[in-house]
Write a structure and sequence with these properties.
This protein is an alpha/beta fold. The N terminus and C terminus are likely disordered.
Length: 336
Amino acid sequence: MKRPVASFIAASWFAIAAFAQAPPPAGDPHQWKMTATDTPSRISEHVWMVKGNPNIAIIVGSRSAMVVDTGMGPAMGRIAAGFAAKLAPGKRLYLTTTHFHPEHAAGDSGFPADTILIRNDVQQMEVEHDGMDMVKAFMEHSEENRDLLKDVAFRMPDVTFHDEAKVDLGGGVMVRLMWLGGAHTEGDELTFVDPDKTLISGDVVQNATLPMIYTGQGKGGTPTSWLHVVEKLQALHAEHVVPDHSYPGDGSLVTKEEKLIGEIRARAIDMKLRGVSADEAGTQISAKLKQEHPDWHNTNASGFVKNVYEDPATGGSEKNSPGSGVPTAPLKPKAA
């Protein structure tokens, strides 16, 4: 028997109005907490978001629903799945993940066993090669992380794809899952929802947040490949954007991300050609960003500037550059 959701949805409609008008929350978005008593905010007709580390997106069609990202470990995964059950009672559930880091993918075992898990094959190889090492590294960050991640066991996906997969959720709601190249990680996945024109952008497009290529475990993309990914996203003409670690916004976030990465990259290339060291360039560019964006939580671009210096596309060393070596052979769907 389907559970009533009228009161749950009505409450969320009130959340949407306040959410759309509120200023971005102060402090580090990585400290945002998702709890089972939160009220999802409606981003567009078929897309909801629960604020947390990361933000969880839930897409609801007439037959099925899809959750994007899991939260930090199985307990957070169960909370995310619980929101989906309230918004889409009795419907088939899909799960996908924006990238392999623990707060995005390590909660997949907290979802019901019949949830259909979909990942791009590049991300899945990162899960297999580096996923548990990444979990162990995150467990060292805090006692809370150790507790949340102590029982992690990544599920094997039911379906993998290379460039793109489409999932029909019913009622005209079509979800496009896309791998467009490396950015924050090599396996970054973008989710685009029609007819809403809502982009769930992971760490690839953020709001008032600097780009960061993570290479502690895995290789990440390059500044050039990241810029190319964002350029491809422009063709979608998104009207709504749901990032992972920052406040949601309209489609202008894609243009702002392209401009931000392009400007940092251009400044770093100019300094490199003038013989400025990567460290000094990072210091100068970060200071300039602090002047330009005094209200941003973090304006330290030193790591990204070093990525520009090392980028093979800008004359860096391919051996030491992220994004240059993970195989991308397509995988097959798991046998039934």
